[in-house]
Amino acid sequence: MSYLVYLTLIPPILMGILLASLLILPTGRGNLVLIISLGIPLGFGISACLYFFWSYFLNPSFPGFWLVEILLIFALLWASWKNKILFTTLIPDWKKWTWSDWAFGILFLVVFIAAMASFVAYTKANPHGRYDAWAIWNVRARMLARGGEHWKEVFIPQVFHADYPLLVPLTIARSWVMAGTESQRIPPAVAGLFTFANPGLLTGALLALKKKQTAFLAGIILLTTPWFVYFGSLQFADLPLAACILSSGISLAIGLIDRAFSWRWIILSGLSAGLAGWVKNEGQLFLLVFTGVSVILALIIFQRHNRIIFFRSLLAGVSLPLITIFLFKLTLAPANDVVDTGNLGLSISQLLSLPRYGEVISALQNYPKGFGGWLVPIPLVFIVFWVLMGPVLNKENRSAILALTGLLMLQWVGYFLIYVITPHGLQTHINQSYDRLLMHLYPLFLFFLFLFLPPLKDLLPQQENSKDVPAV
């Protein structure tokens, strides 16, 4: 019986996969890895938004929410029916794979399986995750699942981080309510799905850009980063946020490269950015950064007609999560413990104090080195390797690279400014959070680096075509 609770996770994932396939397959860039991986953040995100409205106007335990998801699934199936022939394009043409394609693909699969085994081992050692899972995410899910008609009363300042968005807690609570039991299998399952969506998104996006070996290599680097799988097993919301940020970034980049179908990718990008804001407060910073970067790029690179289509697509994607966030923040969430909008005096004075910036820089310098858990600075080694491989900036990828540069740099600047205004002990705040903030951006940073690179097949020795030898 306990394993049957996993069935409650299928409808949101199926909903996300169908939406991703509906938008991506007509572009000719669809692949199983990308669509399935996109289905996880999109499906759980949309489900959490809808479940929030269900809870807000009824209550989390009110029966019948599964009907909403089933109706949406059938609606997406009906919309996809006319493009059913396109699903055959998801099957790879194995005959065109070279020996290097197979080598990188098999190595990626082996590393993926090993990473999953590591995740299971970490989960068995810490089945309830670590502190943030106990104090914020899973306990909030229990409050929602048990609250019934009084669930709104839990959002009080005395509750730790009561203003945090609810994508992860609502996803867990929804499964518990549907299953009729608070199974401990659900939180690590949700954490695992979001964790492994990241390498799937990274690999699938590069496959969509015809960078086969490069795609597998990028996935391998992400999966072998020691902190990555371990962070996922802690059941925090950082890797769900990383998945939404990565989903938004890759969709925006491909939309800027594939101008003929850009509106499809922009819808996905806007939706993913909005869902990032529904995961964590840091995601709301990303939503702000994403909006600014997208608007500026649209004004610069698109003509008036295409610009209108761009903005319409962006609005169509971001609307559902944005309305959800506003409703939660304006009616339920108490003040944030870092940025108190009711008392901005201290924050403004720190922002205007130049010595404060020096304090933050010094504190960041004192932060323990070695991001990712590597014994040697592998990311630095990889960047050197990347430079030696000869990154390519051309007309096709220029806009995408500018967009990703803006997203990464401005998001990091936003994190820096959070430390500037923090009312907490500066060094303690940095030591407890900086590694996780960097992990939000790490998968997108890898995509950014590999987007520059030419296909690895151009750097690998090619097999010569064998010539027929006449029989003697």
H/E topology pattern: HHHHHHHHHHHHHHHHHH
Number of individual domains: 1
Query: How many strand elements?
Result: 0
Number of helices: 18
Percent of residues in beta strands: under 5%
Q: Determine Rg (CA atoms, Å).
A: 23 Å
Average residue-wise pLDDT: 88
Question: Can you summarize this structure?
Answer:
With 472 residues, this protein is an all-alpha fold.
How would you characterize this protein structure?
The protein is mainly α. The protein has one domain. It is about 70% helix and about 0% strand. The chain has 18 helices and no strands. The chain has helices at about 10-25, 30-55, 65-80, 100-125, 130-145, 165-180, 185-210, 210-225, 225-235, 240-255, 260-280, 280-300, 305-330, 345-350, 355-365, 380-390, 400-420, 425-450. α11 (about 260-280) runs parallel beside α13 (about 305-330) and α17 runs antiparallel to α18. The longest helix has 28 residues, at about 305-330. Mean pLDDT is about 90; it is low at about 465-470.
Topology:
Elements: H1 10-24, H2 32-57, H3 65-81, H4 99-125, H5 131-147, H6 167-179, H7 186-208, H8 212-223, H9 226-233, H10 238-257, H11 262-279, H12 281-301, H13 304-331, H14 345-351, H15 354-365, H16 378-389, H17 398-421, H18 426-452
Helix pairs in contact: 1-2, 1-3, 2-6, 2-7, 2-11, 4-8, 4-9, 5-6, 7-8, 7-9, 7-10, 7-18, 8-18, 10-11, 10-12, 10-17, 10-18, 11-12, 11-13, 12-13, 12-17, 17-18
